[in-house]
């Protein structure tokens, strides 16, 4: 019996968006209008690339960024939930599928000592250049028309499950925990017997409800959460079964 827990990161594990939180490092803690308005739907990674250039041009260094990022609060109950998963790793494989980036997620998880809870993190690769600027790349190229051009979370989830199967690991149940519009695609991939856990009041919950109203509901079961305590209660039930 092994369960796969797939987590989104922003507004799910942490209670903020890591990409907008970094703006606290900018002069006067805001971006110029021209830069702010340069975002085009589906092209978030390129937009963040421009934000990082602006921060670099204004002398914002790696250590300041790191200090700022590690002050982001975890979502209510999340610290307890991750502690619980960490103590039961023989039952849970745990991955992150996120549109953030490797540098931010790494800093945040390591600062709180949660990096060992996760088996893999799938997110946009980022690194600091020789001149000290943070750079970010698209996670992959894909053909899914519904997802941002840099990341289709369904593809990531499917590839991970397939790879695990090749290594003889099959999951009793997949639990997908997220909040955003880009979490709908992987939720649509879940089968009967799997669980989608959308965060209450966020886009994913609304999109799942809309599908049910349109009489094309998702195949998996849906369990809404407002605090990670709700998720932990469900996982404790799973283990008891």
UniProtKB/TrEMBL annotation:
Cofactor(s) needed:
Mg(2+)
Coiled-coil region: none
* Gene3D superfamilies given in the database record: HAD superfamily/HAD-like (3.40.50.1000)
- Which InterPro entries has this protein been placed in? HAD-like_sf (IPR036412), HAD_hydro_PyrdxlP_Pase-like (IPR006384), HAD_sf (IPR023214), Pase_PHOSPHO-typ (IPR016965)
Positions binding substrate in this chain are 19, 99
Catalytic-site annotation from UniProt: 8 (nucleophile), 10 (proton donor)
Q: Which PANTHER family match?
A: PHOSPHATASE, ORPHAN 1, 2 (PTHR20889), PYRIDOXAL PHOSPHATE PHOSPHATASE PHOSPHO2 (PTHR20889:SF1)
Protein's recorded name = PHOP2 phosphatase
Query: Source taxonomy lineage?
Result: Eukaryota, Metazoa, Chordata, Craniata, Vertebrata
The gene it comes from is: Phospho2
């Amino acid at each position: 019996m092994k369960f796969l827990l797939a987590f989104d990161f922003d507004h799910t594990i942490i209670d903020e968006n890591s990409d907008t939180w970094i703006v606290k490092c900018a002069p006067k803690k805001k971006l110029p209008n021209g830069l702010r308005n340069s975002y085009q739907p589906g092209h978030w990674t390129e937009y963040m690339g421009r934000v990082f250039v602006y921060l670099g041009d204004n002398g914002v260094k790696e250590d300041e960024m790191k200090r700022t990022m590690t002050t982001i609060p975890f979502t209510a109950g999340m610290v307890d939930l991750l502690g619980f998963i960490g103590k039961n790793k023989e039952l849970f494989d745990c991955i992150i599928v996120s549109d953030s980036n490797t540098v931010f997620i790494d800093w945040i998880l390591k600062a709180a000592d949660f990096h060992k809870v996760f088996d893999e993190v799938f997110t946009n690769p980022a690194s600091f250049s020789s001149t000290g600027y943070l750079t970010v790349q698209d996670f992959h190229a894909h053909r899914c028309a519904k997802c941002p051009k840099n990341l289709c979370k369904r593809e990531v989830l499917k590839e991970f499950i397939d790879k695990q199967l090749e290594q003889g690991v099959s999951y009793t149940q997949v639990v997908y925990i997220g909040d955003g519009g880009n979490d709908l695609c992987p939720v649509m991939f879940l089968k009967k017997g799997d669980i989608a856990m959308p965060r209450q009041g966020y886009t994913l919950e609304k999109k799942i409800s809309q599908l049910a109203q349109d009489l094309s509901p998702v195949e998996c079961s849906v369990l809404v959460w407002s605090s990670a305590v709700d998720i932990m209660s469900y996982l404790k039930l799973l283990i008891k079964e």
